[in-house]
Fold these 3 entries.
Entry 1:
Amino acid sequence: MRQAGRSLPEYRRIRAQHDLFSICRQPELCAEVTLQPVERHGVDAAVIYSDIMVPALGMGVDVELVEGVGPVVAAPIASRRDVEALIVADPEETVAYALEAIRLVRRDLASEHAVVGFAGGPLTVAGYLIEGRPSRTFTRLKRLMYGSPAVWHLLMERLAEAFSRYVAGQVRAGADVIQLFDSWAGTLSVTDYEEFVASYSRQILDSVDAPTIHFATGCTHLLSSLARAGGDVIGVDWRLPIDEAWTVVGLDRAVQGNLDPAVLLAGWDRIEGEARRILALAGGRPGHIFNLGHGVLPETDPAVLTRLVELVGDASGRDAPAARAAFEHT
Ligand code: CP3
């Protein structure tokens, strides 16, 4: 999840001086920002500080992350020629800095903490590339998908090939897990997801020589399709109780989730109640990664996050302060 977000003062101090892509282009600084939430909260894993649009930069796309808006693309994709102009190359050539940050994080992080690398899902990244900015309805995307299916499939092939190389490069650089964030896949019906997206997600996930997490939000109707497309772990948002989601996904898979990030804006009693409810529904079954159902909201009090990590650690027999001490030791 977007865990660093804007909730940490130590992150905000750095962000006041540099924009997101310029942090990413400085591997030392990127590694520092990546480690901040682990250092502060004692979580089990570091999510590499990057964005799903970083590999698009490597594909030659002019994209900016506009504060309070999200990714904005200068020349949205509208034709076969636009798709053909996308560069598919090895990440060592196009976004070497992103791989170097992973090497530094893996070097500096205690071995019991996992490094989570990631890529955007093909539907979600195509959404930004075609719409040019965040969209609620994905009208342009659907117009291209239904109206020019050959162009759509060419775009998906290019993204799947570029992202497969990108995640393979991340694993070579030291990522222990790869998460595929197809955040907006839920905008499609089950049949359209199967026809237009699933095989490309499968291609990316299959190319990873490490455990994978497949995540989408607003996709209660798509859970079994997502699980069929791949992922050792299926990330679920907060809309379904986790035991029901797990039944749909299949008990042979692991699940990640599923506290609503907005609950963290409530009083502690509510937060504790919701966290304990999720843990009880997961029932101590192996293969539950406790997490939020989506990214940390910027207005979240970091002290609440630390307390939540402690609660989940205590409830599941893990010693969070000891994990933090192990981190500080390195
Ligand atoms: O801990 C982390 O921050 C992990 C790194 C991370 C970022 N983006 C950094 C980021 C990750 C995993 C992402 C993934 C990402 N980016 C997704 C998939 C996950 C999800 O949340 O659904 C998506 C859809 C994006 C696209 C994107 N980037 C959006 C919608 C925004 C928010 C725009 C805003 O200002 O509200 C971003 C910007 C962004 N990417 C931020 C961070 C920390 C926030 C602001 C900043 O510091 O500039």
Entry 2:
Amino acid sequence: MQYLKGVGPTLAEKLKAKGLETVEDLLFYPPFRYEDRTRFLPLRQIREGQSGVILAMVASTRTRTWRKGAQVLFEAELQDENGDRLLARWYNAKYLANEIVPGLRLALYGKVEYDFQAARTFLAHPEFEAVAGDGDAELTLDMGRIVPVYEAIGKVTPKQIRRFVQRAIEAAREIHDAMPEEILRRFRLPRIDKAVREVHDPPADLSVETLNQRRSPAHWRLIFEEFFWLEFGLLRKQREMKRTPGIAFELTDLIREKIKQMLPFKPTSAQKRALKQIAEDMAKPHPMNRLLQGDVGSGKTLVAAEAAVIAIENGYQVAILAPTELLATQHYLSLQHFFRRLSYPVVVMTGSQTAKEKAQVRKAVASGWAKVIVGTHALLEKNVEFDRLGLAIIDEQHRFGVLQRLFLRQKGMVPDVLVMTATPIPRTLALTIYGDLDVSVIDEMPPGRKGILTRHYSQQAIRAVWEAVGRELATGRQAYIIYPLVDDSEHSPDLKSAQRMFELHQQKVFPQYRVGLMHGQLPASEKDEVMERFKRHELDVLVSTTVVEVGLDVPNASVMVIENAEKFGLAQLHQLRGRVGRGAHASYCFLVTGKQTEVSEQRIRAMVESGDGFRLAEADLEIRGPGEFFGTRQSGLPQLRFAHVLKDREILEMARGEARSFLEREADSVRLREAERYLEDHWQRRYGLVQVG
Ligand code: ADP
Ligand code: MG
């Protein structure tokens, strides 16, 4: 990049920090919008709200301060050939005084706004270009055509980026087109070379609307391109996995009997179906790579425990990875409970254990004595060695990177992997994130659930909430009350904290009940203890931060109060709500909000209207986009540039179909190997499709 004219080492460094490393990266940096700058407007015709290209001469300029000196304005009085005048104004642009001087001819593009104080229209912060000679403006990069607008990168302006992209296009002699020939032909796709050029420099016969909807042939090709290689990579990974030798577990009648012995209750038919799929995978002589998806409270743990029995009875160990210590402890306790009858030794390993404790656990794991090993990231440390790891169960996948999944796999004999998630994933997203996994869905709740009534209250009406909570407590139920902060913060005076509200609840609101406090800053042992006491019903009310978000299972708790609910994301609200409604009691979720935004109102409304995680995930995607819901980084969601998983779902499905038939058709041909090499060179890093096996 640094050898591109006008870039240089310093700027190259800045661009690199944002993921633009090579000239190729620049070629594939998409404009996020297009502006129609084909129309030239005489100043006489100009009205407030319009935008267009203006050709004029600078009559005079001045620099002045504004907002009590906080800002500097640079203004130029423009005059066109009819003698009409208009003021152009730039904010914080003192430096322009050297560039824009009286007598200079300019082509400008901007929006006409109205200044109430001065009672005049003006051109607000226009882009401009000096025009040579006195004839019509030549067609330049920034004027007289439909112009691509790029997202600024730090201090690098959209206009600068437009120049760099243009130079990159000029410098790039040829862009290699790796898309299989017959796909190009069938879909009549433009060549990659043409597509890249046209997306930055659209042909004159396309309207700005078509371009802004990303429906030009060039866009279609580039969107298809991204999806095709992504799906190709995922399918290839999946196929490779199916060829890698793995453990073929047997499921004998004796083992079936053991599973029955363990079960504390009758599995739902959805649980049975999931187990059947898992058992079939486990029986195959290749590693299982399966996602177990089920809404909060659907009973995934039970299915995981059944799978564990199969592995253990075949003489292997089972590792269970949890995203938080609290959840690891919780799994540890419930699995211990499940496996008591089968006398499997269960151990737990977390970051907060002492070195001595860890050493002990490590020994139990390495010797093969421990059959079930529950843990947090601590389990992934290099010095942890399994004797015979056969099955790895990963809970709440979206908190673990794909890499970790693989790392775990590399420790030993390629165990089977079962990923559990309560994050409801709409199909299109599931394809892009989990395209390499087989999926089982638990779409049925255990019997006897009474449902959760969700209500919205404003801060002013909070008294009604405490009364409702009091009524539930009086009948012997328990309640969670959630706050966004641990401690009061001067930075967020609007937010309530668990610490302060704990005291208030204990002393004023619920003095006759046993109130506990939980948050992430407590030492691990204390967290465990509080959780245990709440589980044993030695506490009636648990005041907490979101540390209880995932996994906690206390069926007697029937009330969830979330204060400052406007501050939480939809996925988080739904997870929190999932802490109640887990037993036979009718349950309540009270969302209490302070000052709302439009987006938070939409979220709260969605929560009140629906208890279905999948519906909520779709709703959230509509409200905020995929990155927000899953936290792009954490989820390992691929970084797509042109494509959008929601808006372009039809193209995604098509690309997946094409990738699949390409793989099947080509078997092991030279063309396939070429495509694979291209994938590795160009897309692997970005998509996190790290080589396996
Ligand atoms: P999640 O899918 O959120 O991890 P859990 O595995 O924690 O859900 O199960 C939620 C609750 O439902 C637990 O209390 C569990 O014991 C109970 N449960 C699970 N399966 C059944 C079943 N088939 N019948 C009755 N209760 C069940
Ligand atoms: Mg769970």
Entry 3:
Amino acid sequence: MDMHEAVAKPPVHALRNASHASTPLRLLCVDDCEADVALIVETLRSGGFAPVFQRVCTREDMTAALDRQAWDVVISDHSMPQFDGTEALAVVTARKLDIPFILVSGAVGEEIAVLAMKSGAHDYMMKQDLGRLVPVIRRELTEAEVRRARRLAEANLRSSEALLNSIVNTAADGIIVIDEIGMLEFANAAVERMFGWKPLELIGRNVDCLLPARHRNAHRPGSEDVALTSGVGREVKAQRRNGSVFPIELTFGEMRIDGRIKYAGIMRDVTERKWAEERIRHLAHYDELTGLPNRALFSQLLEQALSESKFSQKQVAVLFIDLDRFKLINDSLSHASGDTVLQQVAKRLTEALPRRDTIARLGGDEFVVLMRDCSIPADAAETAQTLLTAVAQPLLIEGQDYHLTASIGISAYPGDGENSQTILKHADIAMCRAKEHGKNNYQFYSSQMNLHSFERLVLERFLRHAMEQDEFHVYYQPKLDLLTGCVTGMEALLRWVHPGMGMISPTKFIPLAEETGLIVPIGAWVLRAACAQNRAWQLQGLPPLRVAVNLSARQFAQDDLLSTIVNVLAETGLAPELLELELTESVTMDNPEHAATLLKKLKALGIRLAIDDFGTGYSSLSYLKRFPIDNVKIDRSFIKDIPDDEDDVAITQAVIAMAHSLRLKVIAEGVESEQHVEFLREHGCDEAQGYLFGAPMPADEFREAMVRCANGIPLRARLTNRP
Ligand code: C2E
Ligand code: MG
Ligand code: MG
């Protein structure tokens, strides 16, 4: 190896030996003369450097040295036996290495030196005069450092530009830059996707080409609107190249570049979001099944109509439409067909209405019509009649003709209420009245209707749902034989536990159920529940007990009452003798012939019959003799004050005596005290029922009481009184 190695390896070792203040220097010497190099190194050392150096004097060695490591400076001789300074410089420049190259030669002519400088040498000097060497190296190192820093900065800039470019062009949002007069200077790739313009086509055009004609001024930079949108996403209309308009969210920012104002706009296509919002808005305001406005929208429209009519002095009418017996039809049809019925009805009502009137669906089978600027009652009545006729046309569903009717209630503004809620409520009340009037008719609201109507209305609505929601329960109250003290049976008493209102008294809801006819299905349910329960108790081994079920006049008027009872007995397997029906006097008085026939048939089945609340009606016992009655229940109002109230005492005594003479058994209701019992026993009353022996209680509790009773524990000692 003809290489003159004077380098300490690894270079770090040399660095460590260098004096503290010395500047490390990786020096490559291209020189055939070892002594010259030693001189150079020594000069540098004494000039404050700590050189780590290698001497080479052939092209191959120089190339290998350059390949092996980085160098801070190359100091080259000019003429060597196998190589020369110009060639050495060419090796460095060919490799595009930024290493300061200093020519140091014993005899370099001016010409060669200039040539070398032109070819990229950084300096030259004579070997005999190394006085400039240290400052030159220092200068070169500094400059090289500056060049390196610049290169790094440029590379950083290039890469952040590339990054920015790729971000801008892959951004889903459209990005544009425009100058102060609205000329486009930049558009990213998303702009092409959104608008159909290629970015390059846009450069130099006015931003107007992205806006629909009628919105152009509003978004022009410098306009107040743009000032407003600066920095804030605002929804505006944009226009595609093909002329179609779509919504975007636009954020504008102002910037100052080279003293000129520019605007950067970020645009987001919000078509889909708008569509979703629209859909949500639609769902919130329209009924999905029929496409009609829903209750919320109707309330708004009504509110609006009322406030308009306050100024115009015109009348507004609300027609509340409820289909008659829809539930019946709905239950007999599939779910889908039930929906079809509602859709058909909605269509008919809509078609029958004058255009300017609005129809909405409140839910279920309830529709409501808003008539603006109409005369009351003429226009409203005419429309109501038109709607009734439209509904009454036969409806073909599942290959069968259905005949629907509706009941309509009408209320008007001004007159029937001050605000939309009241007007709607009153139309609802009037509709209920139309139902009571036999359905398939319309009624105008009148203030008399409102007397007890609201509470009633609410209660009625809840009552309609109570059965579906399992809110009804049957309680049982024992009846005792006064002679033996044994339980002979129990009365089934309905309880309604509403989730919001709690326990609602039957005295409150039974009359309502009767008025609305709901008592028919409810009563049938109680009958079935009571018979099934009694049968279950029999199977569980309780002594044979008779269960008494109350029958309302409305049930009694039902043609299918007998078959309902027969079916219930058959289904539950309860012996007819263990069922008693309690009827009020009025039941027999409304239609005595019908009552006599029906009661005979019931009697023939073996069912026991009792007259409930006896004494509160106007019938007499001799009148009742026409009917096959077994028991008479003296109303608790007579029992309450005995033995203190002489009249009650006299009446009770007489009733017991007369009933016995007609071979009827007597049972006293509302027995609350020992005094009552004493009196009743003394006067031969057969049975008693009341809190003294037990309040109406749930089935489980009643069973437990019966079991204790059978074990010889007297009922009254065990049962807590409770209303
Ligand atoms: P009702 O048939 O005369 O029932 C007797 C009522 O007297 C029951 O009231 C019962 O809880 C109450 N009572 C029992 N013992 C005493 C007592 O010692 N003192 C007092 N102050 N009251 C006592 P309830 O359960 O509130 O029922 C009221 C009415 O509602 C019943 O009078 C009946 O006419 C009707 N009702 C209850 N359930 C049904 C039913 O399933 N169908 C029908 N149609 N009507 C029912
Ligand atoms: Mg009763
Ligand atoms: Mg009673």
